[in-house]
Amino acid sequence: MPKAIRIHQPGGPEVLRWEDVEIGDPGPDQVRIRHGAVGLNYIDVYHRTGLYPLPSLPWTLGMEGAGRIEAVGEGVTEFKVGDRVAYASPPVGAYAEVRLMPADRVVALPDAIDDQTAAAMMLQGMTAQYLLRRTYRVQAGDTILLHAAAGGVGLIASQWARHLGAIVIGTVGSDEKAELARAHGCHHVIVYSRENFTERVREITNGQGVAAVYDSVGQATFMGSLDCLRRLGMMVSFGNASGPVQAFDPGILAAKGSLFLTRPSLMAYTAERADLAASASELFEVVLKGAVKIEVRQTYPLAETAQAHRDLEARKTTGSTVLLP
């Protein structure tokens, strides 16, 4: 019987259990995937803690995986048994050796992209795609600020933004992460533990501010990020690693230069099959031509996911992390 990581109640990493699960045959419009690799993402922590509640408990965590189709349900015409596929989409349940997925939520993998690379890039890479190409469409010559530049999304987005011709300012928590961010496209790196990032951004931009801030940190950086923006700049708040942003008067946006604010999610940007396919295709394109390099910087056995969560929350990880069934 296949195994999976499940939770029976919200909580810390200790609630993650390695258990036998019953999978069964795919239903109509479903495929059954045997995973070669599973992605680790901060949204998994939000599901584990209950910040983003799951439909019911017990439940298998995980939003991203790659592997091979071993069965197809009635009505599935785009895929066949043996096809290599990947996904980064609900329903939650990737922390498993085998799982069922709606066929319209998976995409075919190019032969040149292996399972570990795919599991390291789908959610973070498609997040970078919608942030840079759709939420605020980065143009050559733009200056942008990217928080957590040495994280999984950060390393991909900084390379991609530089490829687009942007000037990339990244924030990180240590000198080691600063080196990593520079090596992956950041023109300027701010170590926020000893530098005031708002002041440094103003210095770097000669007081003009940046066109867009991409902020996955949340509470700790939100107000300072607003002060980094140029007039009519775009504040993109797409994560809460330091906690949810507290309520504020939207009049602040007017006072600071008629700023724009959005709180996007990958799931909204890929809700339609055509958008999902286009996002994955653009990601595959920049990876296959070498403009964006995907590095699996940590791997853990799937059975040891609790330790992976501890390390992720302690900010001991950099870039992409993959769980191996």
From TrEMBL:
Give the catalytic activity: 2 a quinone + NADPH + H(+) = 2 a 1,4-benzosemiquinone + NADP(+)
Could you confirm whether the keyword NADP appears in this record?
Answer: yes
Annotated keywords: NADP, Oxidoreductase
**What is the top EC class of this enzyme, as a single word?**
oxidoreductase
Gene3D superfamilies assigned to the protein according to its UniProt record, in alphabetical order: Medium-chain alcohol dehydrogenases, catalytic domain, NAD(P)-binding Rossmann-like Domain
Cite the Pfam families for this sequence: ADH_N (PF08240), ADH_zinc_N (PF00107)
Statement: the UniProt record of this protein carries the keyword Cytoplasm: no
Identify the EC number(s). Answer: 1.6.5.5
> What NCBIfam families does its record include?
PRK10754.1
Similarity-based family: Belongs to the zinc-containing alcohol dehydrogenase family. Quinone oxidoreductase subfamily.
Name this protein carries in UniProt:
NADPH:quinone reductase
